[in-house]
Specification:
Structural class: mainly alpha
Helix content: over 70%
Number of domains: 1
Largest sheet: 2 strands, antiparallel
Shape: globular
Distance between the termini: 52 Å
Number of strands: 2
Number of helices: 12
Strand order of the largest sheet: 1-2
Oligomer: single chain
Amino acid sequence: MFYVDQILVQAISLGSLYTLLALGFSLIFGATRVLNLAHGSFVILSGYAAYILGKHYNVGFILGSSLSMLIPLIFLPIIVLISSRSPHPRETISLILTFGLSLVLQNCYMAAFSADYRILYGAPSLYEIPILRVTVSSTQLALIITSMSAVALLFLLFRKTMVGKALRATIQNNEAALLVGIPIKQMRILATGLGCLSAGLAGSLYVRVNYIHPAGDIEVTLIALLITLFAGRGRIRRLLISAWIFAIIETVVSYWWGAKWRDLLSSLFIIAVLLWRGEEIFENSREK
């Protein structure tokens, strides 16, 4: 029973991080129809920034995360340009362009940071929860609290503000949003900015629990793509549930059979989800 509880705690903390990883990808895809294969590169760059701030300048967690999450905003004009200038089908063109961008960024990271694996690890404090009979580390608590706070703020933005409702309408149907007077160009810029900030915050957390390296963006993009395909565009509650389900399965598989099966599991999930929901996910691919 102890192992089950600990696996569940690990899965919840990992799933919270995965929700944040997928949220940025989902926002950009939902509003702009850009399948951003460079999403993982944005996360890795933020991770490098958090690593440098924490390792070399002893910047604290809150300040380091706040500064690191701003770094991916430098890519906002590129994504907006791709979304506004790409011919249809936009998903296909954006796949090619952002794949090229990810290759360029990988080589830039290799030149700047070398191929060394890096992790911002500190000796975590341990907290025991007597009622549940589990031990939670300070790192796991930071992952859960930070990720869930960011997700909750975005959920409130979408549900309680006029700007958020306009953004939801843009994600659900570009043409209908345009017909009712919503400025979809501004909404696309806003969604891209929020997506970049989410990727940046995810990167500052990711480097604390996983090793980062120039080619590590592939795994991050795969996770974000998988959860977005499973949950659908811009659906925060589904993203959260999907991320937790995937994290539980991944944690159980890693515990029983080893981490080497994790990538195979992700690939099989993507194939299954595309066969199951592919037509529904891309049904609005020709929207402008």
